[in-house]
Amino acid sequence: MQPYAYPLAVLLFPGGLFALVLGLALKGVDRRLAARLQRRVGPPLAQPFFDLVKLAFKRTMVPDIASQPVFLGAPLVGAATMMLAAAMVPIAGVYTPDPALGNLLVLLYLLAIPAVVLMIAGSASGSPFGAIGFSREMALMLAYEGPLVLVVAAIAVRVGHGQGGWASFSLTEIVAYQARHGAFLFDPVMWPALLAFLAFYPANLGIIPFDIPEAETEVLEGPLLEYSGPALGLFKVMSALKSVVVLSLGIALFFPTAPSGVAGLAVQLCKLLLLMLVGVTLVRVSCGRMRIDQAFRFFLKWPLALSLASLVAVVVI
Amino acid sequence: MTRFIQTLTDQAKRLATRSPWIYRINAGSCNGCDVECATTACIPRYDVERLGCQYCGSPRHADIVLITGPLTARIKDDVLRVFAEIPEPKVTVAVGVCPISGGIFRESYAVHAPMNQFIPIDVNVPGCPPRPQAIIEGVAEAIAIWRARL
Ligand code: SF4
């Protein structure tokens, strides 16, 4: 790999700009569809872009009691990590990340960072709502990280066994394995893990049944309460990037089969859209928000059991 | 070059005005105006999200402020404090007749109407309470003012 390929992958495609535009467009489609499902007209598809431009023109205010470097640094760290993470997820037939960028384990750590950044931001802002958001975010994170790790472990062991080894944490190999043996979507052993993943990603993206840390009506957007202007915009950038990372991770883990070249990219976009509409929009408009204890118990009951079942099955078979 | 940058910022500002976020302050209103504001926001028929509006819970995210009520003595300091927390550029819309004159409370010793002694009001939407259509028109006017301020 040429030296300039890394910055290109992180800043332009598939990380950075590409992922940002994609994430904002997905968000626009989501908002429009949600409005239609509620029999409203809904915002224009480009609304998230307008919001971002608007935020760039506003002033950033830092509360007196906030710690300024942490308060302003947190969103930067969050957005930068997600840019990097977007460059680490392969798109079948289109993009293969360089192994030097890191494997699935590194990606898992990077995926935890937005939640940590939100916690830090909430507590640095000095607002009591931020502190409540902090504690909720932490509880939720403890609940959903466990199942995610088990899902990833199940897949890694499956691929590792297939290659005669023990476990493989390389996303490229996981995609290649599925290209040879068929996608995990059609593998009954993996179905419990798939269900667990389907429960994980709404929680990670902070959408309605699990948007407990940022609940507007309860804690006034919690950690984001004190943010304004470009700093808030960076958080929007972070969440747009994160949605692309998490959704394309799901595709890479369970259903990466696609033709190569431009057709592969189109297939990838269709899959992302489908995941977004079914897994995010439909869930969002048809559910109410859970309480934090309900969500915690839910994750420790179902997704954990399901992902554990998959892992055990994979190890035993 | 400077002209190019100028047109670019103009375009960006034009896009930016399509995303006004609305924040509501209740300065001691009888709740009539608040119900009308909520109607404007929540009922599919008036769907303000199609204009890019979004009601936000935090004053720091707000662009357009809807203030209702006659500014009672009890709440005055808190309203002023919240108002100061809204980042510039912002536009204020006073909803109802209360902020203009005190409305049915005008003779009371407990209110500080008219409100524009304390807060710069850009748009008045009179009525007791005003209709949702009038509130939307007020917001549309506020967006025009906001564009000039960006
Ligand atoms: S204008 Fe009328 S409806 Fe509105 S707050 Fe005043 S008294 Fe209530």
Can you offer a commentary on this structure?
- The complex is a heterodimer of chains A (317) and B (150).
- Chain A has 317 residues and is mainly alpha-helical.
- The model of chain A has no long low-confidence stretch (mean pLDDT 79).
- Chain A has 12 helices and no strands.
- The longest helix of chain A has 35 residues, at 128-162.
- With 150 residues, chain B is an alpha/beta fold.
- Chain B has a single domain (2-149), classed as Rossmann fold (3-Layer(aba) Sandwich).
- Chain B contains 5 helices and 5 strands, in the order αβαββαβαβα.
- Chain B has helices at residues 2-16, 32-42, 76-84, 98-101, 132-149, and strands at residues 21-26, 54-55, 64-68, 91-95, 123-125.
- In chain B, strands 2-1-3-4-5 form a 5-stranded parallel beta sheet, with helices on both faces.
- In chain B, α2 (32-42) packs across α5 (132-149).
- The longest helix of chain B is centred in the C-terminal third of the chain and has 18 residues, at 132-149.
- The model of chain B has no long low-confidence stretch (mean pLDDT 84).
- The chains are: A mainly alpha (317), B alpha/beta (150).
- At the A-B interface, α3 of A face α1 of B.
- Residues 29-30, 32-33, 68-69, 96-98, 103-104, 128-129 of chain B line the site of iron/sulfur cluster.
Can you summarize this structure?
Chain A is mostly helical and 317 residues long. Chain A has helices at 5-11, 16-37, 47-57, 68-86, 104-124, 128-162, 171-181, 191-205, 216-219, 229-254, 262-286, 292-316. Chain A is globular, with a radius of gyration of 19 Å.
Q: What percent of residues of chain A adopt helix (DSSP H or I)?
A: 55-70%
Distance N to C terminus of chain A:
38 Å
Distance between the termini of chain B: 21 Å
Tell me the number of strands of chain B.
5
Tell me, what is the CATH class of chain B? Alpha Beta
Shape assignment of chain B: globular
Q: In sequence order, what are the helices and strands of chain A, one letter per element?
A: HHHHHHHHHHHH
Bound molecules: iron/sulfur cluster
- What characterizes the major β-sheet of chain B? 5 strands, parallel
Beta-sheet strand percentage of chain A? Answer: under 5%
Q: What assembly state would you assign to the polypeptide chains in this entry?
A: heterodimer
**Mean pLDDT of chain B, nearest integer?**
84
- The gross shape of chain A turns out to be globular
